[in-house]
Amino acid sequence: MRIGSHALKLEKRFTLTGWQAVMSSILAIFIALALFSIIFLIAGINPLFAYQEIFSYAFANPFGSPLTINRFIFLLLCTYAFIIPYRAGLWNIGMTGQLYAGAMGVFAIVVAFGGREFNATLSPGLLIPLMLISSLIAGALLGSIAGYMKGRFNVNEIVVTMMLNFITFWLVSFLIKEGGPFMRSGGEGDGFELPSSIFAPMIIGVPFTIFIALGLALLLYYMFAKTRIGYQIRAYGLKPAAARYAGISTVMIPLLVFMMGGALAGLAGYHYFAAVPGLYKIPVNYGYFGDLAFYGIICGLISLGNPLMAIPVTLLFGGLSVGGRFVQGKLHMSYGVDYALLGVLMITLVAFQFFYRYKILWVKTKKESLDVGIPG
Amino acid sequence: MLIKDIKRGETVLEARGITKRFPGVLANDQIDFEIKVGEIHAILGENGAGKTTLMKILFGQYQPDEGEILIAGKPVKFRSPLDAIDQGIGMVHQNRKLVSAHTVIENIILGHPHAGKILNLKKAEAEIDELCGKYGFKVDLNAKVWQLSEGEKQVVEILKALYRGAEVLILDEPTSALAPVETEKLIASVEAMAKNDLAIVPFITHKLPIVLAISHRVTVLRRGKVVSCTKTEHATERSLAMEMVGREVIFRIERTKVERGKTILQVENLSAFSDKGFLALKDVSFSIREGEIFGIAGISGNGQQELVENLAGLRQAQSGKVFLDGKEITHASSLERWRLGMGYIPSDRNEVGSIAEFSLVENTCMNYYFDDDFYQRGTLDYKKLKELTEEIISEYNVMTPSADIKAKSLSGGNLQKLILARVLSRNPRLVIADLPTQGLDVGATEFVRNKLIEAKKNKAGVLLISEDLDEVLELSDWVAPIYEGKIMAILPGEAAKREVVGGMMAGIDLEGEKK
After folding, report:
1. CA–CA separation, B51 vs B203, rounded Å?
2. CATH code, domain carrying B315
3. How far is B457 from B387, CA to CA, in rounded Å?
């Protein structure tokens, strides 16, 4: 494109610094917000006011901020569940099922230790670690099905994880329905509530799971960058045939990444159903959390499989989903505004990844350049 | 069109002072080049000499940073290949760009301005038929492209360019995928086209005899510069090779005698299935001792792939046994074999031997990640790996700005050097070299062969798989022709005769009977 004596030129990038990636993403967020203003304008709302409401509720409000943080932890764990197989070139669409499996693992432990009985006295020091471990194992077991099928028989992991989502959905449904083993006394369709003695400890008003989630970012980053297993996962992810040549087991890697991913999605199950204040049960609308888990896919893609980058991305998504829902109610907008906002943001962020590969240059053109040499 | 007005023998296309820079590389440095009507002017150069860049500039895929292109004396500017095509330049790619489910004729008219909205296949067919007659091409216009041989596909590409009105034809590695008979046909057609006042520019990496056979003039590129531009009758294979590589190239390698030691590899009655489920390797037995190169000569697809994959632990044996240093490894995994001292150089260096998106350090790591010398407190010692990679790069003369760039930016020859270096740096007991010089230019080929001989001097056993009969005969202490999964004979290298081995590769044994 030419404007006067200057021209916009598209040029391929050969290297991308972390700083450039961050700048491109920040620009994308602003563009997304600008685009979404159109919706607010149509509804007759000042977009600046709406965004102020969204952000202040999500990040600086005694009611909104804890919601944001809870959702952030949840999304971050689900994002890891996507990222780990993604680095091995595999797609985990099953964080929903793995999250349910984790939740089932948690409540099964409580049932096994008699936590359903009236006035049960339970030792949190023993039970909370057990519940955590159980959620990890249950998620990993479910994940291992897809991983093993992929590694051993080359069955498409997307199909398997997807189908397992349905199986676990109905399994949970069976467990919490009236007459089911996890039923809440008196029906109502919810699962039973945890005895208050084993509520997860809060640290400055935040579930302790936040430290696990943030610690995992460092751990996973380190694993991919430095360790032997991280190297093997990345090699397999980029070129399975070359990995096989190098002696990397093409059965073990898919199995391992799906077990790790599944375990962390299972942990997300512990977080939401056993550590978030006010819930402490599998609620009847548990399917909502399953849908939310799918945001792990998009957050994983936006953060390019980088566990550290997943932190700001999931924080933003968590905050906007909370804030979006809030303004929808407060400003009397139609249903689904929060989802629409997330959708626009997703598309812009992904589209802006174009600038990871190309850059636009503003160059001075030479006078003679274009009008020579194209005789009819 | 401009070119029509130019008489035979006058310059049609000229490039003056073409310079193109990429980050860290000067790909083309002040290149001058011209071609006359009716001339075949070959451009010769090693991998990475700047041939591809120049070709893309002439065809409008890249824009030069400096310099200009002239057609019939007038400067032109190509902003895309479409501009170049409109000016009468045609390109035949090495990787065919055809729609395999369509017929030949449909492929030829694809993208032609006349085929814009309504297809007039009859008229097109008549016109294409005429072109075929004029240049002596024989191809069934109504056949589907997937049914054609590589040579026929190339004819389709040439026809496509000609039908589009090309008068300067750029051919990228025109003979690299062709069988000998097809090569001869192509040479005849190219000569016919030159007689009919087309200008032809073949770009060639290796196969010097082809250059001598077809061209009128040769321009040799080295490191982005024109080294020479000579009439072909004044050039010899030796002089061209010297200009390409920049030094004398030894075409014949002296067979070095090395004291042969203990048996390293022993293969007993080995059979294996192919991926398609038939028995591709049948009852093969041989052994390799320290200081020996065992050469398997054969045309691709006669069981070499299955043999190599089995020895590397990537394919199960149907029956038979394999021993490495006296230890049975028939059922050992690939990783165990690496640890026991196997070093495997795969034939497919892009898809199997390297990972394009990995840095050179990470690529070196492919054969070291399991090595405890490069493992410290739970992590891979990337610092040590980088030192090793830098050593390899300087020792093997891999052309790269640094060890941290991605492998995809290396040329084929440099990538092969890196893979070879990485495998040989482990001092393997057994080196399996599968088509180690395939597609390499003269200099890199010589280098690879010398390194294999060096490995043999260092008391390793070398299994060499090659389609190039001369290569096998020159390097090997034992020559084993393979045909349909069977080793026809194991002949001592000094005594093996070219005709005998060549016959066996085609399934004819010593008595001359077809098996």
Report:
1. 7
2. 3.40.50.300
3. 26
Which residues of A are less than 8 Å from B352 in CB distance? 241-242, 245
Q: Residue B357 is nearest to which of A226, A238, A245, comparing CB atoms?
A: A238
CATH architecture type of domain A43-336: Orthogonal Bundle (1.10)
Structural domain includes residue B445: no
- ipTM surpassing 0.90: no
What does each of the 515 residues of chain B score in pLDDT, given as a tens digit? Answer: 455 667 777 888 899 999 998 777 788 999 999 888 888 898 888 777 888 889 889 999 889 999 999 988 889 988 889 889 888 899 888 777 888 888 898 888 887 877 666 677 888 888 889 888 888 888 888 888 888 877 788 889 989 988 888 888 898 888 766 666 777 888 888 888 888 878 888 877 667 777 888 888 999 988 888 988 988 888 888 888 888 877 766 666 667 778 888 999 999 999 999 887 889 999 999 999 999 999 999 877 789 999 999 999 999 999 999 999 999 999 999 999 999 999 999 998 999 999 999 999 999 999 999 999 999 888 999 999 999 999 999 999 898 889 999 999 888 888 999 999 999 999 999 999 999 988 777 788 888 999 999 999 999 999 999 887 888 888 999 999 998 899 999 999 888 887 788 778 877 765 544 44
**B173 and B122 assigned to the same domain:** yes
Cβ distance B220 to B244 under 8 Å?
Answer: yes
Check if B340 contacts A (Cβ < 8 Å): no
Look at residue B446 and tell me if it is in a domain: no
Same domain, B329 and B470: yes
Question: Which of B405, B427, B449 corresponds to the end of one domain?
Answer: B427
Task: Find chain A residues with C-beta within 8 A of B351's C-beta.
Answer: 239, 241-242
pTM of the model: 0.78
Would you say residue B441 lies in a domain?
no
Q: Same domain for B333 and B358?
A: no
Assign 3-state DSSP to chain A and report helix, strand, coil percentages, each to 5.
65, 5, 30
Distance, CA of B434 to CA of B348 (rounded, Å): 9
- Chain A residues touching residue B367 (CB < 8 angstroms): 246
Cβ of B388: how many Cβ atoms within 10 Å?
21
